[in-house]
Amino acid sequence: MRYTTKLLSLLFATIALAESLPPKLLNYGEGILNTASTPGAYMGALGSFWNPAGWATMSRSEAVFTWDDRNSARKRLDNWGIHAGGHGFGASMRRSLVSHGDDFEYIDDYQLAMAGGSRADSWGLSYGWSKGEPSGDMRQHYVTLGNIMRPYKYVSIGSAWTLGLRNGRAQGQVDLGLRPLGGSHRLTLFGDLAANDKDSPRTMQWGFGAEVMPLNGIRIAGKVSKLYPDAPAPWFSLGVGFSVDASSFHLTPHYDNDDERRYTSYAVRIGGVEPGFKAQQYIDRDKNIVALGMKGVLTYQKSRYLDSGRHTLLEMYELIDKAQADRSVRGVALNLSGFEAPRALAWELTEKLRAFRASGKQVYMYVDRPNMTQTYLLTQADFAWMDPLGMMDGIGWLTGHTYYKGMFEKLGIGVEEWRYFTYKSAFESLARKDMSEKDREQRMALLEDFHREWSRALTDELGIGADSIQMAMDSLGFITAHEAERFGFVDTLGRWDDASEIIEQATGKSAHFVERNKLGEDDQSDPYWGEHPRVAVVYALGACDLDTGIRARYTSRLLKKLAEDKDIKAVVLRVDSPGGDGLASDWVADGMREVSKEKPMIVSQGRVAASGGYWLSAPADYVYTTPFTVTGSIGVIAGWLWNDGLTEKTGLTFDKAQIGKHADLGAGVELPLIGLEVPNRPITDEERVRVEKMIVGHYDDFVGRVAEDRSMKREEVEAIAQGRVWSGPAALDRKLVDEIGGMEDAIEHARKTAGISKHEKLRIEEYPRAGLINFDRLFAPSSPLGMLAFKLGMIPVEPLASESKPYGLEVLDTYAKHLGQPLLLLPPEDLPDEK
């Protein structure tokens, strides 16, 4: 109602313009009869003429031509109107034949309107005037202020107030709509009441009725109405409408109390504002194939503009859903040339394509230089082809470290690892020259789990046997296109330009391609009343830090705000983090617990959700993971670097003045250019005891929180902790997570546990909000603007930072910022190469 309040002052200000002339306002009762409904319950421009707030409720534009058969005076079309608008704006013109003196004359009524607001509360303001010889005697200029409130899917409440600008005459109207069948538009009950400033209860206009839509495209409405103040007997109107695609035709005969038809109203509507029969999809049934150029990166969020090089996971979900629902689409064709995706996200896309195929539609794929991730995607192709000169690479699995201890010795930097838990190896690359046996053990277990899932998919979906897979892996890691065809990775060879011919030969049907933007907009308006139920998707990406990465200050405040937001029915937290600062992790975990008290709190794990990233998973009501997720690593690590001859080798020196026995802990020379401060001394035995107690205490707290959050015994958690990392399936076996699934599964679980019907459209609110422009791409050195900016000396030749640093750099930053402090951190090397 806040929009209405703002406009009331404008309405009342017009009273000063009133003049004492006799003209009346438009007759609401007779005028609304053409809809056989009420302004608030009716979908479209006809109702918006009487309540301008209706223009804001239309998510599509519409043009309507109306007429009736009251043409006896001149034997031609005398009563007609044109109404057009949508998205908050509308214009109307009505021509009426009226008795004026001893003859009949025309009056043309015009109206301009603007509207705004939300689906739950919309407002509108219109200005009307008339032309024609009798208009001066029978009409006056007026303004109408309207409001439509739809606080629930079951109820619509409309109201409008009209003020004449010549004599101050006023009239008001209210209407009520009810949808008793679960809020479905299949049945709407309605009633309205209108009165002017001279009316008594006996002379007011009223009406009531019902509208039925048994199928999209068929509308039947009946209404009993009192049309005129001095006519107590009601009229009956029966409206029938047929809508096909974006066009519809309506006819509404009107009967008096003697069951005599007085006249019939007609309307032709263009715009698809009300749900119609989608004939075009049946005409073109199974004709189209959606061409998807996938060059770029599959990620979580992208900017609205200048960000064509990225595809978001939710964007792909929506696109595939639209293709699945469109009967004219028989399949999708993915051009995977230049496509990159983390393996966990690629698995989620694969599962979405699996569901698409299960609906009876087909998937076609083209590759030129497929890596292992693209090869995994090929398992969901009904038909795949490869460039004849292409090469399949990356056949194999690898994980490893670069070890820095030897370099540190040469530089004169001492290293001490504080490792009290068997598998917590995050500091190992700084403190050793080779891989420890326990680290090798957990890494091999990860690789074996990943390889098992990858091989299973190739065998089950492509029919490639274990021997052939092993042979392919042992072929120096590279397979030619012809070899890939022989192994069964692809069905034939060709280029993307040959897609039509290849698909036609494979299916025996012609291939008619359409671009993805053909599926971008619904071809009909949304008949739902009020706001759609909302689920928040919050992204916690990167290192666990207060101000970067997962941005714990922001994210924890956001979660607590979402917990209190009654419009948000559930929250899904997407975790893709190797951990970091335990304080940052705990802040976000506290916010999750606040959400869980009020509504479902679901976690979807991405590429990695380990150590501090797993701390963000445990408090959830339910946790989904993927077969390629790295999770667990319940443990704490810390270490110390110090000046052990660096001064002598570099000439850098450090001096100090201090108060306090330990004030110099961590103080030392700062390396030029990189800004890394190297402590000037090792820690003392006394400090080491303190550090050990702090690390062990932090670990005990971590284990205890996981046991409480996951409803496990402490000894159960201890048995799988010690910093050990697990793949998604291994974590499921150990009750660290609840189910193998992706973000779509998490959203659907949130929907179900929040009590939202699967038939209701769900609105996804993503946080943090996507940016408007990707400035990194705008000023990239390869772009024209980037080259110009470089020539002018505005930016360096190096590309600007991407949305997040590689995990390796984030980990090094975390070490530097928290040297000597307990960290909940997974080393980046624990993530197998994404080939």
In short:
This protein is α/β, with parallel strands linked by helices and 835 residues long.
General description of the model:
This protein is of the alpha/beta class and 835 residues long. It contains 26 helices and 39 strands. It folds into 3 domains: 2-277, Beta Barrel (Porin), CATH 2.40.160; 288-400 and 435-519, 2-enoyl-CoA Hydratase, Chain A, domain 1; 534-633 and 724-827, 2-enoyl-CoA Hydratase, Chain A, domain 1 (Alpha-Beta Complex), CATH 3.90.226.10. α7 (313-325) packs parallel to α8 and α16 (552-564) runs parallel beside α17.
Task: Domain count, please report it.
Answer: 3
Arithmetic mean pLDDT: 86
Low-pLDDT stretches are: 3-22, 789-804
Give the strand line-up of the largest sheet: 1-2-3-4-5-6-7-8-9-10-11-12-13-14
Distinct helical segment count: 26
Query: What can be said about the biggest beta sheet?
Result: 14 strands, antiparallel, barrel
Strand residues, percent: 25-35%
Assembly type of the chains comes to: single chain
Overall morphology = elongated
Radius of gyration, whole Å: 35 Å
Q: How many strand segments?
A: 39
* Helix content bin: 25-40%
End-to-end CA span: 55 Å
What CATH first level of the largest domain would be assigned? Mainly Beta
